[in-house]
Amino acid sequence: MSLESRASRPWATATGIGLAAALLFLINITRPLKLVFDETHYVPAARYLLTLARPINTEHPLLGKEIIALGILLFGDNSLGWRFFSAVAATAVVVGVFAIAWLLLGRLRPAIFAALFTMLNFTVFVQARIGMLDGFMAAFVVTGIAAMIWAMQGNGPQLIHRIALAAVLFGLAVGTKWAAVPYVGLAGLAILLADNRVAPALGGQRVLAAALFAGVSLLTYFLTFLPAFFYANDPLTLATLLPFQATMFAQQTLPLPPHTYQSSWWSWPLDMRPIWYLYEPVDGAQRGILLIGNPAILWGGLIAVAACLYAWWRDRAVAVGAIAGLWIAAYLPWIIIPKKIGFFYYYYLPSIFLCLALAAAFDHFGKSRLRHADAWFAGLAGVLFIYFYPILSAAPLAGPMSFLNWMWFFSWR
Questions:
Q1: What angle, rounded to 10 degrees, do the helices at 181-193 and 134-152 form?
Q2: CB 291 within 8 A of CB 148
Q3: Which of 381, 394, 393, 369 is closest to 115 using CA atoms?
Q4: If exposure means fewest CB atoms within 10 Å of the residue's CB, which of 210, 213, 350, 371 is most exposed?
Q5: d(CA 126, CA 128)
Q6: What's the CA gap between 113 and 378, in Å, rounded?
Q7: What are the φ/ψ torsions at residue 342 (nearest 5 degrees)?
Q8: What share of the chain is helix, strand, coil (3-state, %, to 5)?
């Protein structure tokens, strides 16, 4: 049975992909046994949430820390508890990418390769194995986009239910990290401006659907603050909930001191300045965790975005152009409103959309001699994944200078 002959049953394929992704992300997720990188901020905040003692880490909303706290509650205050739901979030990203490709392109092959490229993208793998907020935010944004596309393809009753689902997911994304706010705005604009041929069920319900989306996403966002109403000290109240948002904004806009691994927005697509989340002797061996992009996916993905835009211009391939638009929309806010200090992990969401662009470009242009180009490219990405795996996964290394085996450029050190 061919791939496309199973196209009417994408859920079975999506489930298999999700299980494979979860297995990949969970293997040895407990190493190292100590907190690494920004886990030192978010895990203590999750511990405080479990005690409901007082506010802590108030520059970010609560949901991401609530999820880490749930992991601690289920698995204990250990490296599995800190990171388990990060692996779940990354699995949701992989399945969400599959869903977006399937919904936009209507073909199983590019959907499978989009998911495979996502699994092989180092950024997704590393964020799947650390207790940080960005992985949860990405999971809600990616699945929210999939839900919104699904809504646009539904009929009248389906439209309202699916828009409500998308609104909940986007509200949860903002409840994890404010960096998701632009996606909420873009989703709202999509409801108001979608072509009737794209979303025929919207018709005269655009304003109602947009109001529903805004209301449900806002309500969902504020509900994520519910545990803060039960703090023993300085609890939130309905009267202080809105002023607290201003407090969060003030803390997020404070000037930060220079950092060893800071980088500028223009360098992220070029994979110029990765971040060592860990590089030290720990758990009886020298270990490292390097947040870096898979060179094949990050560099090849830029060509794929350009190819998708060309397909949209030359062939009026709207769905392919929309996929390029996802990368542009994810990257553009960092150019327009750059923070005083930037880090490569801000590029996490745009790096995910590169995987979609690659699959879409191969599907659109992969004819005749190029019909197996996606598989060959996946092979290249897989070889690079295996090559870099020791410094992505905190595997034991030979010694303190072992990192040099993977440092292609001086800026990677």
A1: 10
A2: no
A3: 381
A4: 371
A5: 5
A6: 8
A7: -115, 160
A8: 70, 5, 25
Grouped pLDDT means (10 residues each) for the chain, 413 residues: 54 94 97 95 94 88 96 96 98 98 94 97 98 97 96 81 94 96 91 72 76 94 95 91 91 79 91 94 95 97 97 93 95 84 92 98 86 93 97 94 91 86
pLDDT at 348: 96
The pLDDT, as a whole number, for residue 5 is: 43
DSSP 8: T
Given a contact cutoff of 8 angstroms between Cβ atoms, the answer to whether 114 and 140 are in contact is no
What sign for the dihedral angle of Cα 323, 195, 179, 261?
Answer: positive
Q: Are 67 and 92 in contact (CB under 8 A)?
A: no
Q: Dihedrals φ, ψ of 210, to 5°? A: -65, -40
- Token code pair at residue 24: 């990949």
CA atoms lying within 13 Å on the CB side of residue 208: 9
CA neighbor of 148 nearest in space, from 107, 95, 198, 93: 198
Distance separating alpha carbons of residues 120 and 384, to the nearest angstrom: 9
* Apex 12 CA angle, 7 and 13, nearest 5: 65
336 three-state secondary structure: helix
pLDDT for res 67: 97
Question: How many C-beta neighbours within 10 Å does residue 196 have?
Answer: 10
Any idea which residue has 């041929």 for tokens? 197
d(CA 112, CA 87): 19
Residues 214-243 as b/e (b if ≥16 CB within 10 A, e otherwise) read: bebbeebbeebbebbeebeeeebeeeeeee
Residue given tokens 């553009």 in the structure block: 332
Whether residue 44 contacts residue 139, with contact meaning beta carbons closer than 8 Å, is answered with no
d(C-alpha 206, C-alpha 185), whole Å: 15
Q: How far is CA 294 from CA 22, 269, 299, 384, in A?
A: 19, 11, 8, 7
Tokens of 272: 């110029």
At 131 the pLDDT is 96
Q: 167, 145 in Cβ contact below 8 A?
A: no
Count other C-beta atoms under 10 Å from residue 207's C-beta: 11
CA distances (Å), origin 303, targets 205, 241, 306, 359, 361:
38, 45, 5, 12, 9
Q: What pairing do the DSSP bridges indicate for beta strands 285-291 and 275-282?
A: antiparallel
